[in-house]
Amino acid sequence: MDWLEHLHPTIQALIATMFTWGITALGALVVCFFKNVNKKILNTILGFSAGVMIAASFWSLLAPAIELSGELGYIEWILPATGFVVGSLFVLLSDKFLDKMLKKQNNSRSAESLKRSILLISAITIHNIPEGMAIGVAFGGIASQVPGMTLIGAVMLAIGIGIQNFPEGAAVSLPLRNEGFSRTKSFFLGQASGIVEPISAVIGVILVMKIRAILPFLLAFAAGAMIAVAARELLPESVKENKNLATIGLILGFSLMMILDVALG
Question: Pick from 124, 70, 159, 77: which is nearest to 233 by CA?
Fold first, then answer.
């Protein structure tokens, strides 16, 4: 961890998001070995990832945003609350727009498999933008000396996002295989959905380090996006097969993130 601490925040964020991209590729690689993946295992992983992301949203992003607002002389809750709502709405509106596109294509008699595949890849890719930005904001916030933000918190946030990227990679590559794509092409397109995370992470770092006055908003924006992703995508999917396993995964993920961020941070 010492070697990572001495790197520039942009490099830290790039390394972290290369990890999350790599996990996406591992998920996409499933298409080369299996036709289907045990849903109970994936749902438990999703529950664990949701727990990590919910805990990280508060301790690594929202709490520091509130504290920094006070230090900058703002009313403590205005920018964090606004950023949180805007970040949540960004995810919700993006998903709603893409859902409408998918529904329109699926209901159209002339819809082709290629169009459906492109829309599927686009949905996962856009979904990954706020996740990459959240990682960039987390590492950039440390360099900007935001109170309450720690390296271990940023690393754990990246790990949590990376874990939930595994089923996302599979969620792209497996349907593409069913559409008739080769295993190689299905894998390539599946892993490509994660390429936006390093790009958006760099943007997040730059924004945080250059515009400190709106940093509480950016931190809360990332927190809102994380909560929206967990509530809209991870939790509903995780309870489909076994609610108990999903709940246990969530509790373990939340507890692990809390312990590492509070005790080691």
Answer: 124
Domain ranges of the chain: 2-264
pLDDT of 110 > 50? The answer is no
Q: Any idea which residue has 């908003």 for tokens? A: 217
State how far the Cα of 48 lies from the Cα of 251, in Å rounded to an integer: 7
Cα(51)–Cα(103) distance, integer angstroms: 30
CB atoms near residue 6 (< 10 Å): 8
Tens of pLDDT along 127-151? 677 788 888 888 988 877 777 678 8
Per-residue pLDDT at 248: 92
Cβ atoms 204, 132 nearer than 8 A: yes
* Long-range interactions of 195-199: CB distance < 8 A, separation 24+: 195/21, 195/125, 196/125, 196/126, 196/128, 196/129, 196/132, 197/17, 197/20, 197/21, 197/24, 197/128, 197/129, 197/131, 197/132, 197/135, 197/161, 198/13, 198/14, 198/17, 198/18, 198/21, 198/132, 199/132
Q: How far is CA 136 from CA 22, 151, 217, 220, in A?
A: 17, 12, 14, 13
Least confident of 38-42, 43-47, 75-79: 38-42
CA angle 232, 228, 130 (to 5 degrees): 115
Q: What is the mean pLDDT of residues 181-209?
A: 88
Could you give the count of Cα atoms lying within 13 Å of 144 in the half-sphere of its Cβ? 27
